[in-house]
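FAQ: What does a multi-protein file look like?

Like this. Sequence, then tokens, then the next protein.
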Amino acid sequence: MSWLEDLKRSAAGLLNARQKPLSFTGLIRACETLASPRGDASAASIANDVLVGYAALPDEQKKLFLAALADRFGPDKSRLDAAISRYKQTGDARSIAELHSASEPKLQRVIRRLNLGVNGTASLVAMRQDAFRFAKDIPDFPALDADFAHVFSSWFNAGFLSLRTIEWTSPANILRKVIDYEAVHAIKDWDDLRRRLEPQDRRCYAFFHPQMPDEPLIFVEVALTNGIPDNISVLLGENRAAIPASAANTAVFYSISNCQEGLRGVPFGNYLIKRVVESLRRELPGLKNFVTLSPVPGLAAWVASVREAKGGLLTAGERTVLEALDTPDWHLNPDRYPGLKEVLTSVTARYITQARSKTGGVVDPVARFHLGNGARLELIRFMADPSSKGVRTGLGMMVNYLYDLRYIERNHEAFSERNQVPASSAALRLAKPAAGFKREAPAKGRKTESDEAASAEA
């Protein structure tokens, strides 16, 4: 059917090319029509006009258009007031259904009808990406984004997504997007991509949506190894020796990249790991360990902040050792600095298990992802990523999160319901200050991050 879809899109593109795009005022009027209770007979044509017209707007007018969507297309307040009144009077099922319907913002209806346009799903994902770019200039951005997120969470439900293997023989346009979207370990060139896809001990899996068949939504790169790796170079080295897939006992998820900024916050990433584990277990029953080799992207900024603040999660001795980080080339020969390996390893474990945001959540985004999926913090790896990005964002540190299939649900519940960080006993020991180090007292009257930290558990 792909050739028929291509023909329809081409015909629609030629038709739209002959038409003058709608003006800004025309776009708003068209959206008001889409928001009305009228039928969908002409909705596809109107949706096409809106999508083409929006794409033709300069950025300044796109901002105004998105702001107008947020401002003008909320719930019908008079209808909502009436529904609330009826519910208070009767409280029956019919009044509850009317209350639910009346409380729905009109923008959600507009978004659903815009999806009737040619390439509507991809166009709307791009529109939400624009909204993120212009968020500071959209007064009611939270309401606008909530409506997009609500609709997208249904459209991109994991049940609608297909898991596909990306191989070196996959179409070139897909391979190009893997290079472009790789967000963890940059792919240098086509040869680098080939080393990640072609060997028999390498895999790459991606989720696709039927309305965006050539656009990966998220992909994970997997290395099949013997044992748990302690640095990224053993996985990505140009001259490494491949092993037979059947000889591997460990699957390492070393890079997970979200591809569509417009789908930020849509929770399909957690299903990806579980589906990939199931696929690998069927293909290679000899696999015993499922782990990550993950960056710690917020570590450098966090360490800088706690070094600047008195007290908190650092001891006086650790603070002295960490003065080595003020030397620009410290990472080129870290062994020159006594105690640096021990302190950075301990501080990294503390950062993941104890540091909390203002809202009480785990600070590190990669940790939140894997812990939320049911993994546990297993091992801390010193200078596992000495690349410029790895040092700049994570002080060269990486960690292994373990997906133990026996305890995934238990770990998920501990993290999601009780805000506890599942961690190995080794990681928990590292998270404690070294013997003989005395933690500095915080300034009088000031609550430290450690005071607010949730407990960790093995």
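And here is the next protein:
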Amino acid sequence: MLLSTPMSNVSLTNGIPETILDPINPQVAEALEAASTADDPRAEIVNVVAQDPTNLFAWAQLGALGRDEIESYAAYRVGYHRGLDALRKAGWRGSGFVKWEHPSNRGFLSCLNGLQKCAQAISEADEAQRCADFLKQLDPETDYSKL
């Protein structure tokens, strides 16, 4: 008598797994684009964040428009943490690539990069180094110092 082995739910992959976030909602993308040419872009971005607080691109733009390093740091940090939530929801388990080459990942990576730069600017060297190391782990091919 032959015994059959049950099918396994384990899938084997070649190499390091990669996570790609969902694309930005087209309506939110339009609102962000319109905000960039408004008389008060920062105020318009604040409105977008209020309407969609999970949108990583909005947090990244708010960080870029911060009135000082602390305000930028705060916006980038919120975007970073919202991004970790989005990554987990997309199947990321704490390791693997999240690459810049995928436009939908750029909101999160921009927040992490902005957080790194702001941490450096306010002399939070340990945090700046953690962010730099994390960027390198997520996407070793992109030079974030040029972004």
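Q: Is there any per-entry metadata?
A: Some entries carry free-text notes. For the entry above: Residues 33 and 129 are 32 Å apart (CA to CA).
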